[in-house]
Amino acid sequence: MPALVLAYHSHNVFGTGYPSNDHVALASDLRAVHAAGARIVPLQQIVAAAQEGIHGGGELLVGLSFDDGPRFDIADFVHPSHGPQRGFLNILRDFRHEVGAAAQPGLHATSFVIASPDARRAMERSPDCGYPDIDDWLGESWWREAVDSGLMGIGNHSWDHVHHAVERIVATTPQRDDFTKVDNYTDADREIRAAGAYINARVDSCCDLFAFPFGHANNFLVNDYLPLRRYEHGMAAAFGTGGRAIGPQDSIWNLPRLVCGEHWKSPEALEALLAAA
User: What is the DSSP string of 113-172?
Assistant: First the structure.
């Protein structure tokens, strides 16, 4: 069966319309996916389908993912320029109420969060991250609430995202905003294993899915560290941003996703992607 994974960022609010607001897009896209006859399922089910063998024809599976871990993933908030915004979790709840729980019984999304408290605080204060005047918008107190909702899981988005706003990253590379430079065991262990351990300790559940920061993967991570060190880091699969449906050639250690605002920018574009899949 074919499968698509869609990715959204709840801090992407640059306007009030579909092309500039991931909250508006998510609410619209849930209805479009449902109208297309696709089945929304947890990412773990997408991974299982990929392991069994993705093929053309049959029921389309769609997975939902959110990146970076703003509390806007679950909480409504007021944007300083664009007004009230419905949190992603509440958008899922609104959709379930609208169509009925039985219509999409597998409705679920995974929020990939950044583990390091210091990194998250640095990003919160950075003007180019968007919300320096909103306190604790990258906090972690909501993680367990998300899991307890039954509609969301928490995934691993690395220790510090090798982000330029962070004063000191744990990887030895001096280069920022490029996760392909995490290309050795020591750096991978600090960025992936340590992050998973930190997140698991706080959500009291199995955080076993990884999303590459910026979608940046490399041969060492995909073919060496992730598959061969699974007993150490505990990850079951990893997701990139390949911009297409999952195919039979794809490794579970770099499953492609489509990113809202990058790989599609309108309801019509998403409908075309769903039809093609």
Answer: E---HHHHHHHHH-GGGS-TTSTTTT-STTHHHHHHTSSEEEEE--SSTT-TT-SS-SSS
Closest among 3, 20, 42, 11 to 262, alpha carbons compared: 20
DSSP character at residue 104: S
Residues 6+ apart with CB under 8 A from 262: 241, 243
Alpha carbons 231 and 5: distance in angstroms, whole number: 26
Flag whether the pTM goes above 0.85. yes
Question: Which phi and psi angles does 29 have, rounded to 5°?
Answer: -70, -35
Cα dist from 101 to 125, 137, 154, 250, whole Å: 39, 30, 22, 32
Q: Which fold has domain 3-276?
A: TIM Barrel (3.20.20)
* Tokens coding 11: 């801090």
Structure tokens at 12: 């992407």
Domain residue ranges of the chain, discontinuous segments joined by +: 3-276
Is there a contact between 260 and 9 (Cβ–Cβ < 8 Å)?
A: yes
Which residue is it, tokens 């061969």? Answer: 228
The model's pLDDT over 81-118, given as tens digits with 9 standing for 90+, comes to 999 999 999 999 999 999 999 999 999 999 999 999 99
Identity of the amino acid at 16: T
CB distance 239 to 213 below 8 Å: no
Distance CA 274, CA 16 (A): 24
